[in-house]
Design goal:
alpha/beta, Rossmann fold, globular
Amino acid sequence: MEFRSSKLATSSTSMKRRAVFAGVISVALLSASLVTSFGPTANAAGTLKIGVSLSLTGDFADSGTAAQKGYLLWQSEVNKKGGILGRKVSIKIVNDASSPDQVVTNYTNLITQSKVDIVMGPFSSLLTIPASRVAKRYGYSFIEPAGGGPKVFLEKNPNLFFVQPAATTKGGDIFADYILSLPAAQRPKTAAYVKLDDPFAAPLADNIKARFEAAGIKTVYDQTYPSETADMTPVISGVATANPDVVVGGTQNADAFAQVKAMIQLKLNPKFLFLSNGANAPVEFPKQIGIKNTEGIFTSADWYPQSTVPGSAAFIKAYIAMYKGTAEDIDPTSAEAFSAGTLLELVAKKTGKIDNKTIIATLHKGSWPTLVGNLSWNAYGEPQGAYLLTEWIGGHLKTVYPAATAQHAPVIPKPAWVG
């Protein structure tokens, strides 16, 4: 899920919504992706040319690389089946270096110079907003896997379709649902909110705050920090002084890691801890904070390795064949990007056509099965579903709520930090 988009810098890791399996993308693949298209030659007769701008360097490089993997895996799989309506698919990926200015240049060039037939989206709300404006200007559809902050949908772009179950700010709703479902004696009485100044992270935490306050959970600390914040200790010191029962972190990846490290250092161990992003990174999160310290931390998700959604097992098999590793190493961003491509296949199958006007008109009707669930959208591309609540249990992310889809009962209160 996006659960991501900021410029926060860190010396230990690039910013991202999800960690990718270390080492699976070679230097050669990364370099090639900056300058050329993948698969069949983009100018070949009958080739369906798709353009994508991704953050392969800069703050969003890890998540951008995860999206790259998903797009390229889909390209490989769809071409094995003969492409789309008999046309081989060629995805041209260019690097936007995590820059809103560069992403505008990239999409403009993809459309006006490379003459791609279709464009699909970048990583993060920060880049999706300016990129979607370019697509709209030229009448292109804009299926995008990782830009679901509130400001994306305020653009009122009828060409846009966000490929996750709901707007990313609603990723916290499932945590609020769970907390408010608890018997009164088990609910937290006080709450702290620490959030990145970011179009995704801050609104998500604010949504939870509004619901908690309406239910009588008292706010004892509320702090928004700028993207330049490298040391989270002063912020978390304020939380420790307030000593809340529940801490809600409106985070991207690097600041999520930094928040937890500061909590460990300050011996702040709330009964409940929710992080909007960072904790959903299956490899990087335990690597950054220690796998034993992940225990009991909540986040939310759309796709996960144990998903029983049709097509998930085949996706995992193909992913491992292409990139090696295990199912646990697959970043959900890869599944989201793969699902963006799947939507093109479904439109073509339904209509017998694959042009921008048809894509836009067709996706606005009905429900569409993907790895991240059955998707449908309002007039401006906001999905109408819901996320799942996940928790780190025994060194793995497990779904814990709603009960109907839970793999494990929630572990509460959060166990003490280790080390």
